[in-house]
Prior knowledge:
By secondary structure, the protein is α/β, with parallel strands linked by helices. It is 42% helix and 16% strand.
Amino acid sequence: MRVMWICNLPIPLTKTLKSQESKAFGGWMTAMAKQLCENTEIELGICYPQSRDRRLLRENRDKIRFYGFFVRNRFLYDENAYRALKRIQNSFQPDVIHLFGTEFPHCLSAMKLNPSRTLISIQGLLGIYARHYFGGLPASLVLPKSFSLMRRGGSPVYNDMEEMKNRGRYEKAALKQARYVTGRTDWDYACVKNINPNAAYFKCNEILRESFYGCDWDYKNCRKYSIFISQADYPVKGFHIFLKALAILKKKYSDIKVTVAGTPLNLEKPGKGTYDSYIRKLIEKYRLEKTIVFTGLLDEKQMRDQFLKTNVFVMPSLIENSPNSLGEAMLMGVPCVAANVGGTNNMLEHGVEGYLYQVDADYMMAYYIEQIFEHPSVARHFSERAKKRAAVTHDRERNVRTLLDIYTKIENVVECQR
């Protein structure tokens, strides 16, 4: 069977290809690709958008064919993306097309290739995320406060939300055409069925990055009263709510330390009216300058090491589907405190494998973090239970068999319709 993947970004597996840089995102897709190629008879083609070369890039390596198609601006719809993907389809002749994510307009281009052979994997859903974008933000940050901002359409934060909402329109158009969708949570199932009740929905959990299997968190080796956060660069990640919880914790734990990974915020010279400027004000207001360390983007092993030495992993997002950072923390047994949003309650059971809190209740976030700080037995209990749960959710062999079964079902339907 020939399967053509279409990705949102160049994944780490493409980092040694011509004209490509290493990327920190999509490592779980690299893990899935390796499992497929090693354990099945799949012939895999991986397509990724790139803006360096107008030519269609082609390369073969490790039983995989790679295609880099040119996209001038990945945030805008471009008919050239469809023409490039059509050339790839004609060359590769896939039995199944697997579209990973709907967050970029080339998703709609890909859906036009052959809907009867196309499977969409739900990652996030921007049209839904946009509804939650302003959660916990003051009106003064969202509404334009000057004539110059009004002329540009709104505040930077408001304009970022509008861009997300616009991309969500392409996403919705693609999903309306979809015949086959795969997801993992009640949240993504409900969202898909609301957009397209006729789409066939398959459940398939994800394989995580290789470095997170076989590593166990140990309370004895962690830095006490430390917190790790994997992303904080835009409002949906909820860092502004976390800072209010941190201010509560700081009163009791003067030596508390927070490490923040991901795309760094611009706190040195934040633009006026930006999310970065608001975060800087909160850090200054609560006197947290010496409490927080921003590491910037970390590779797979650096992320693993940060997880293993932290006391608590916190996920304060306003909305998520099934965040891989939470899965990675659970797989290694890191005690977790997460906002009860989207599909997180399908990943972690409150009070059994970690704590879930109401997303805007910073005081409850602080309370649950304190419970783990104060009670090592609770931390160890959560660690063991979370590892067992995540080992099932992210079982590599089972998940690759499930995905292969989905491909086979789609191929059989196509054959029957001939």
